Amino acid sequence: RAGTEGRPRGPPYQSNNRTRQGSAEAASAALPCLEGTYSNAVGLGSSDECTDCPEGSFCSTGSTEHTPCSPGTVQPATAADSCDKCAAGTYVGGSGETACVECPGGSFCELGASAALPCEMGTYSNVEGLGSSDQCTSDAGRAGNACGSRGSPPR
User: Fold this and answer.
1) From the first residue on, what is the mean pLDDT of each consecutive set of 10 residues in the chain (155 residues)?
2) Can you list the pairs that 133-138 forms with residues at least 24 positions away whose Cβ atoms lie under 8 Å?
3) Cβ atoms within 10 Å of 89's Cβ, excluding its own
4) pTM score, two decimals?
């Protein structure tokens, strides 16, 4: 037929403010931000409008704000969807941190530690980065030596 070039085939278009099912315009709810991003804006049209989570925090799908990593966990990267536990031998005491610190001598730090724990009474260590209390050295049986307070070297 003449004059039909460029027109879609099928039922005639109806101008009743309906859109095709599955299109972004037909979405009944706002599009959520993807994991690793967030936004508190209403009615986002695209996930490109979301902001990457900053270092030291994470964002799950649909986040309206970033969540700081809890003590014992860190996130050095941006746009993360989770925080990582500190490795054994390290710890971090604050929230929103990007790096764990080495456990000091006289103490140990287990996986995900938020604080260094002193070696148990009767044990010690001047080595940094211990990952368990088993790595603290017992001084029992050495004549003339006795460990004083927790984590202190023999006298």
Assistant:
1) 41 34 46 92 89 97 96 98 98 98 97 97 93 86 43 46
2) 133/108, 135/108, 136/108
3) 21
4) 0.70
3-state secondary structure the chain: CCCCCCCCCCCCCCCCCCCCCCCHHHCCCCCCCCCCEECCCCCCCCHHHCEECCCCEECCCCCCCCEECCCCEECCCCCCCCCEECCCCEECCCCCCCCCEECCCCEECCCCECCCEECCCCEECCCCCCCCHHHCEECCCCCCCCECCCECCEC
Token look-up 């287990």 returns 110
